[in-house]
Amino acid sequence: MTFALHGPLWVPVNGFYSKKGVWCSVSFVLLSLILWVTPICAGLSIGAIDQVCLQEGPCFDVSLVQTEAERAQGLMYRSSLAPREGMLFIFDREAIYPFWMKDTLVSLDILWLSSAKRVVHIETHTLPMSTRRLVPSQKALYVLEVAAGTVEKLNVRPGDALVFQSKKTIK
Questions:
Q1: 59-83 per-position pLDDT tens digit
Q2: Residue 135 sits in a domain of what CATH number?
Q3: What is the sign, positive or negative, of the torsion defined by CA atoms of 89, 73, 155, 96?
Q4: How much is the pTM?
Q5: Confidence bin at 26 (pLDDT 50/70/90)
Q6: What is the spatial distance between Cα 2 and Cα 24, in angstroms, rounded to a whole number?
Q7: Is residue 58 classed as helix, strand or coil in its secondary structure?
Q8: Positions of E strands within the chain
Q9: Which candidate, 94, 106, 167, 104, places its Cα nearest to that of 136?
Q10: Which of 35, 47, 51, 79 has its CA 20 to 30 A from that of 22?
């Protein structure tokens, strides 16, 4: 229900706000604001991300995984993963996202990240080809898979912040 200004009161008028004869759809205004502000706040569209960096450390060149089909494939059948290479899974909302290593030929370190891009759970040296479910202790919006041993070598801990960026925008 929406309202129009008549004297000091807002009164409902056909899904629109009215003030001094100016009509505008509330949903249109909100959508416009979201579309205008979101890229400014994020500074980077999701599709432009090609690196994930430790706030005080190195970066990983990442492949993005955003669709169900891409999530199902993941790093399956890959025979190697370079030390500064990874895969970033991007989900629609924060939730508990279990992973497994079925048909994954290399051991991985897996980091679950909150919407604030902070590490909330870590699994290290995962067992290749295992069907054991790796269940995080907290909800995540992102999951980063990197080569096994990376977490230990770089001393990554829960609570650490990561930064998403694009090599194209780095000068």
A1: 999 988 777 766 666 666 677 788 8
A2: 2.60.120.1140
A3: positive
A4: 0.69
A5: very low
A6: 11
A7: coil
A8: 4-6, 9-11, 16-19, 22-25, 51-54, 59-65, 85-95, 108-113, 119-123, 140-147, 162-165
A9: 94
A10: 35
